[in-house]
Model the fold of this input.
Amino acid sequence: MGNEKIMIIDDETDMLENCARILGRNGYVCITTDNPSEALGIASVEHPDLVLTDLKMPKKGGMEILRELKTLDPSIIVIVFTAFSSVQSAVEAMKEGAFDFISKPFSADHLLLTIERAFNQRRLEKDNENLRSQIEATYGFDNIIGNGPAITKVFEIIKKVAKTDANILIYGESGTGKELTARSIHANSNRRDKPFVPVDCVALSENLLESELFGHEKGSFTGAHAAKPGLFELADEGTFFLDEIGKMNVVTQAKLLRVIQERQFRRVGGSSILDVDFRVISTTNIDLNKAIEEGIFIEDLFWRLNVITIEIPPLRERREDIGLLTKEFIRKFAEKNNKDIKGISGEAMEILEGYHWPGNIRELQNVIERATSLTDTQYITPLDLQEHLHQGVDPENYIKNLPFKSAKRKWLESFEKKYFSDLLQESGGNISLAAKKAGIDRKTIYRIMKRHGMDGG
Ligand SMILES: Nc1ncnc2c1ncn2[C@@H]1O[C@H](COP(=O)(O)OP(=O)(O)OP(=O)(O)O)[C@@H](O)[C@H]1O
Ligand SMILES: [Mg+2]
Done:
């Protein structure tokens, strides 16, 4: 690697020239000074990534420079030169935050290796930091949008339980954010650096893939050419996410129960017993108590999985969140589609707040994605929202606030729509009759119907 900036401080000019030559040859940018009193001033202008400084200098000691540099920029890497005899001062420097020391005299290789090691370590730390903040940005609680009382209650529960090892059962209708919640819990748990293993129980019960869960040993069945670890093993020390647990068939349920109870299992065709430690987060949108009564869900398994219950209310029961969700989704999709959309009109917002959202947040997200990609105005208006969302909201109210040209266009649009939907109703869906009444041909009627998403019936 190269292009990192290194500052060298030493009162011996030979040393400076020597180091600068070695480092320069290896692609580093070097700044040197033989006056330690100037060092801090230079550093504050040049912002070096790494500083090499002698410890013993007449005007100012290296320790003092080290302290000052660290105050200036805590992330700066400082490596000190020490005389061969003074290990003690090197130890002291490291206590003060020096990354390493190099005792004089040293070889070019030794110098280069020490510097490379410092940069590598810092790169690693940076990567980890990025990864962590990336995970937190995606699945931190911050990403579950909402600030109404219902979702705040959910936040409080997940904050409390994330760090525990308790198994969690999440109830909620389709699209309410069950998986998002499960991933947030994992990302905020002590298992965050271990795998999150999602299992779709619907797919699992369709073709019971025992070897998927348990893994198998080589030769345990025809076609098992190599040993393969199962999902249980993959989830070790991490989180096992069982999506739609209510759909798992009873045979698989019994097997899962045994693994959860014993924390041990064998691969298919295997003889050795493997230990596992995973936390289970499961979801359901059916009532498991009823499933137990019907004999299609094992009660013991229910108690094992349901140590903590989280209920995510449907969107229509927390309409107070619709505004915030809408704004966030507009921002997200406007950015994604590179469109300059500033927000949503009051009338359009009213429509969204009044709708019953059977598909919950997923549906709202889709509606906003569609609206942001279709709209040609800076604000999403009712016209960008599909017809089924409007429930009796009169478009004339917002049309009068538009500039004349668009107002005229929108007014004509809505007139055309009303004219033809009334016409079709009066003609009982008979297109020929409607065409005759309107004095236009059937093709035109079909085209208009298509434009407004009407069906003939
Ligand atoms: N509170 C929220 N804030 C932001 N986005 C959300 C929120 N809740 C859900 N979403 C988004 O809505 C979509 C559906 O969420 P998710 O997949 O977690 O729901 P689910 O309950 O698992 O749905 P299903 O039952 O259909 O599997 C995802 O794109 C998710 O990111
Ligand atoms: Mg889901």
User: Anything to note?
Assistant: The radius of gyration is 34 Å.
